[in-house]
Amino acid sequence: MKNFKSGIFLNQGTFKSFRPEKLFRNWTLEDIDIISLLSKADRQLGRLDMYSEYVPNIDLFISMHVLKEATQSSKIEGTKTNMEDALLEKSDIAEEKRDDWEEVQNYIEALNSAIRKLDELPFSSRLIKQTHKILLQGVRGKHKIPGDFRTSQNWIGGASINDAIFIPPNYNDISELMADLEKFAHDEKIKLPDLIKIALIHYQFETIHPFLDGNGRVGRLLITLYLVEKGILKKPVLYLSDFFERNRELYYSNLMKVRLNNDINQWIKFFLVGVIETAKSSIETFDKILKLQKEVDDKLQKLGSRTNNARNVMSYLYQKPLIDASKVKKIVGISMPSAYTLISELEKLEIINEMTGGQRGKQYWFTDYIDIFK
User: Fold this and answer.
1) Which band of pLDDT confidence, cut at 50, 70 and 90, is reported for residue 359?
2) Domain ranges of the chain
3) Contact in structure between 173 and 12 (CB atoms under 8 Å)
4) 271 with 196: CB under 8 angstroms?
């Protein structure tokens, strides 16, 4: 990106905060490596979007994509809830792990809520604030004004502001900078490709750090929201948190290189590589799901008159791959003895596996399905 200047450090007395330049300006894209990566990323996203049209009942599988995104995005921030933990009820989670579990559940609700609200609200500060409010409700950041931009200085890294790795802009600048970000996202006079725009939006949001807590999770969530709103993806099936988590040091260092060295090109290349790799991985995931679906359905044919009931149970398991007898009873509308019989049949077919080891309150994993996402 030609002649890019990231911003300036401003003296605030005992520290210097960073004020980024606004996004709404003239941009010139000349780096051939970026153009090449952009072409590959567009191609892979097109392939992934095709799956969202042609995979039967794709909405069944999106919930697991969201759950994986929630655990990985939260993991970057230090939570330790894995996918299996996230599938359990709160009462089944050890007391010392419940805070992490609740943060992951909030992320799932925040993302799902934001996707639904795109029908009535554009990609905007208003939507971002509403999403942030859900993210922090009832968890460790609940006292850090959920749903509102900060009114005090924050910092990244370090025990205090005096040894911080990075100090975002003064809170008085947030409204203006976020209004600029919103204008950049929607103004069609800016002729940049949408993937470049969301790479810049994510960088800018993380640099502004407009909230006292939850900025990283909200910033990563915005990537999917933007791609869905712009129609690049018909369904929310691309999530970059797993890529960022696996390349965590590069993720943070590339963001800092922009601020310190004006190196926006390296950040965009890193972002586009993430889109390419994640889209490819998501396509492989859908291929594995379709293969597993066929294998499972072939097994269900052996159940005779219970096949249709078993298919109803499988529809539930593709959304949440953990089940017990009472849930089977409710889904299918059968007696408890019949529910236990159906579970036993599914277990014999090696479709589900008992995970508690107890005699009462048994729960069963759809393990082969979970493993696809891990």
Assistant:
1) low
2) 7-285, 292-373
3) no
4) no
| Residue 358 predicted with pLDDT over 70 | no
Question: Which CATH code of 3.40.50.10070, 1.10.10.10, 3.10.129.10, 3.30.70.360 fits the domain covering 292-373?
Answer: 1.10.10.10
* Dihedral of the alpha carbons of 278, 279, 284, 286, in degrees to the nearest 10: 110
Give yes or no for a contact between 148 and 165, defined as CB atoms under 8 angstroms apart: no
Burial 339-362 (b: 16+ CB within 10 A, else e): bebbbebbeeeebbeeeeeeeeeb
Joined tokens for residue 17: 């905060």
**Residue 108 — very low, low, confident or very high, per pLDDT cuts 50/70/90?**
very high
Residue whose token pair is 């003239």: 26
Q: In terms of Cα–Cα distance, which of 252, 193, 176 is closest to 219?
A: 252
Is the per-residue pLDDT at 83 higher than 80?
yes
Residue where the block lists tokens 């994509």: 65
Contact 277/309 with Cβ under 8 angstroms?
no
Mean pLDDT computed over every residue of the chain: 94
* Residue (of 193, 230, 218, 11) closest to 103 by Cα position: 218
DSSP 21: P
What one-character DSSP code corresponds to residue 209?
-
CATH number of 7-285: 1.10.3290.10
Count Cβ atoms below 10 Å from residue 182 Cβ, excluding itself.
20
Residue 96's identity, in one-letter code, is E
